[in-house]
Amino acid sequence: MAITDVPAFAHLTDADIENLGAELDAIRQDIEDSRGESDARYIRRTIAAQRALEVAGRLMLTASSRRSAWWAGTVTLGVAKIIENMEIGHNVMHGQWDWMNDPEIHSSTWEWDMSGASKHWRFTHNFMHHKYTNILGMDDDVGYGVIRVTRDAKWKPFNLYGNLLFNTLLAIGFEWGVGLQHLELGKIFKGRDDRKATLVRVREFGVKAGHQVLKDYVAYPALTSLSPGATYKSTLKANAVANVIRNVWANAVIFCGHFPDGAEKFTKTDMVGETKGQWYLRQMLGSANFEAGPGLRFMSGNLCHQIEHHLYPDLPSNRLHQIGVRVREVCEKYDLPYTTGNFAVQYGKTWRTIAKLSLPDKYLRDTRDDAPETRSERMFAVLDSDSGSGFVATTDPTTGRRRGLNTAIATVREWRRTKRDTKSAA
Amino acid sequence: MAKNSIKISANVADTVRPALAGADRHPGWHALRSIAARVTTPLLPDDYLKLANPLWSARELRGRVLEVRRETEDSATLVIKPGWGFSFDYEPGQYVGIGVLMDGRWRWRSYSLTSTPVTGAAPTSKVGRSAKTITITVKAMPEGFLSSHLVGGLSPGTVVRLAAPQGNFVMPDPAPASVLFLTAGSGITPVMSMLRTLERRKQIGDVVHVHSAPTASDVMFGGELAEMAEAHDGYRLRLRATRTDGRLDLSRLDDEVPDWRDRQTWACGPEGMLNDAEKTWSAVGIAERLHLERFAQSRVAVHGQGGTVEFARSGKTVTVDAATPLMDAGESVGVRMPFGCRMGICQSCVVALVDGHVRDLRSGAEHEPGSRIQTCISAASGDCVLDV
């Protein structure tokens, strides 16, 4: 179940991993050295455009009694919120723009346009999720405590209806899921929380969420109801739908990052002694990209480059595309998977997995050691028992190509197919 | 692998809410802003308005450079129109922080104001514009990256950041009866603000000014000083061209200003001159009559060694080497440092670097005072002060 021995799974020696780390560090250094005026201009213009878009959307809603204006305003506002949360807020809070030393575009000052408090996000996301990425029981983003996204998690009866239900609810109310995550409601109900710390968090969340609710569901509707072309209710509905558009989209992009087939999960580790190279490796194996042109890339907050983002959470988002070319080369060199695919296909795979995992294990064909959503180093044991020697990572003497993890996975797949064929033939 | 004993804890730094400059001075505007902020939350109205005009924001003090006036070959005066929230009732002699965008980064330096303050009492007599501007005068230091840029590379229209004026090297109002100004080089800048203010307040009673510069053409504000000496009998200017006359020897100050012991003295110039002055005045037991301004030494060389770290809010200090993360340094003396991942990825531990330099342990990059730093992957590079 899940990967415990990362080097063994990756078919890399300690020396390989150290070299891998050095190559990834070099990419980072190149980007850090070349950050400058054009990058700064990019984020400033993005922020200006986003604010203009938001104002435009709000203005359109002053005519929201008309159906066309309602839709135009709602979609514009939804898009503005997506850009604020993803390409700006998420990335600014990661410190991607801290190098500019601009207090107004800085991880320590940014508060984003959603119900969750930035401070809480920096804990659950920047710290927990990015440090303990995909480690079962440590990275809460693996299922958010309600969805069974990997068969490593024990099946519970409520998964039968809950998996698809909660996934749908989470998509629709994603900002509330994110906002409440740090409150750890589960622990509060079980009485296992630190009451004092909980109260502080509840207050912080309450203030932030209160301001957000007041803005979108009281202040703006009241303001636009002064316009002859809108009513309180028409704007209220528009704002609610705009928030949902943002929620569904953000949820889809984020789920594509860690839950499609090929994004690995890991067993609990205290991480003591994990080298920089091993950390990089875990980030690469646990993340998945999706293919995107410039438009989709921007609207996903450059999270179509989830792998690169996890390797370098604090490098500017506008550089991830360029970084991706080099990371892909590194993956090829070490024969490591670079999981990517069409956006709709990747997102479809997350739903497929979640739907499948509603069922108890006995109805699932694949084992926890070799399933689409999770694998472990034990998946290669079949090769040991079969050939006696097992799979050994080598370098092809003629082409110089390494035969590592990718080749090993293909070999196991081939072995399984042959076995199935012989079985059905017999 | 101690599976169940893993305790995850963190102390995430609060999100710093924007401070609004001048909110207390304009209660009406502030009330309006608070109401408007209900619909702009989590942003402020200022965050939208500044897109129309950068000066329409009191969230961070800003100014627009109106003019860059050459003073000498290597110095220039910047005339700056500050935006919302800037207070003009500073005291003559104070300095202001100025942040300039270079290669996408905001970099900060402090310079003495050379303009005269506008206080509630003083009539805004002069031309309307000058009342609403401030000036700083900058000397391009050799290898001074930023000062050279300010003197030679800044064009009118550039938007700069400002920090509120501060400093104790100030001329009181009313001024003392007899005054001595002892200046050298760009050390004349804070005194220029004092002189202009004294002139405006008609308080030039008995002022002696001894100023040193390498040559006569290196004297900043040479023309204006001469005019002032011409116009006011009470202002006596002694210029010293050190390249021909040699440096002023303070042990022979009696020859220049026989009654210096009786005067309130303001001195500003190179470190050596100020140290000599301190000794001279202390020797005769009148140190309280001497007011000094030391410009921070601009650090050119990259410092690799550790230093003494001061934690400003908790008042604790510790001396550390160049390899110890500042977070560890703080925790070792019991400072409640913000922390998270402890590996440089989560931004939970970001605090402001008030003074001194720190070095990024991963890349070796140096951070300047006025920036915010991750304490878990930064080490002291010389003495430094953190806002925690």
Describe this structure in words.
- Chain A has 426 residues and is mainly α.
- Chain A has helices at 6-10, 14-34, 37-60, 67-93, 118-131, 159-172, 174-181, 185-190, 195-224, 232-258, 276-286, 294-299, 306-311, 320-333, 343-356, 381-387, 405-425; strands spanning 394-395, 402-403.
- A two-stranded antiparallel ribbon of chain A has the order 1-2.
- In chain A, helix 9 (195-224) packs across helix 10 (232-258).
- The mean pLDDT of chain A is 94.
- By secondary structure, chain B is α/β, with parallel strands linked by helices.
- Chain B has helices spanning 27-40, 45-52, 128-131, 145-153, 188-200, 222-231, 242-245, 253-256, 271-283, 326-332, and strands spanning 62-72, 75-82, 95-102, 105-112, 134-139, 159-166, 178-184, 206-213, 235-241, 264-268, 290-293, 307-311, 316-320, 350-360, 366-367, 372-374, 378-386.
- In chain B, the strands form 3 sheets. In chain B, strands 4-3-6-1-2-5 form a 6-stranded antiparallel sheet.
- The two termini of chain B are 35 Å apart.
- Classes of the chains: A mainly alpha (426), B alpha/beta (388).
- At the A-B interface, helix 3, helix 5 and helix 9 of A face helix 2 and strand 4 of B.
Task: Provide the fold topology.
The complex is a heterodimer of chains A (426) and B (388).
Chain A: H1 6-10, H2 14-34, H3 37-60, H4 67-93, H5 118-131, H6 159-172, H7 174-181, H8 185-190, H9 195-224, H10 232-258, H11 276-286, H12 294-299, H13 306-311, H14 320-333, H15 343-356, H16 381-387, E1 394-395, E2 402-403, H17 405-425
Antiparallel strand pairs in A: 1-2
Helix pairs in contact in A: 2-11, 2-14, 3-4, 4-10, 6-7, 9-10, 10-15
Chain B: H1 27-40, H2 45-52, E1 62-72, E2 75-82, E3 95-102, E4 105-112, H3 128-131, E5 134-139, H4 145-153, E6 159-166, E7 178-184, H5 188-200, E8 206-213, H6 222-231, E9 235-241, H7 242-245, H8 253-256, E10 264-268, H9 271-283, E11 290-293, E12 307-311, E13 316-320, H10 326-332, E14 350-360, E15 366-367, E16 372-374, E17 378-386
Parallel strand pairs in B: 7-8, 7-10, 8-9, 10-11, 12-17
Antiparallel strand pairs in B: 1-2, 1-6, 2-5, 3-4, 3-6, 12-13, 14-15, 14-16, 14-17
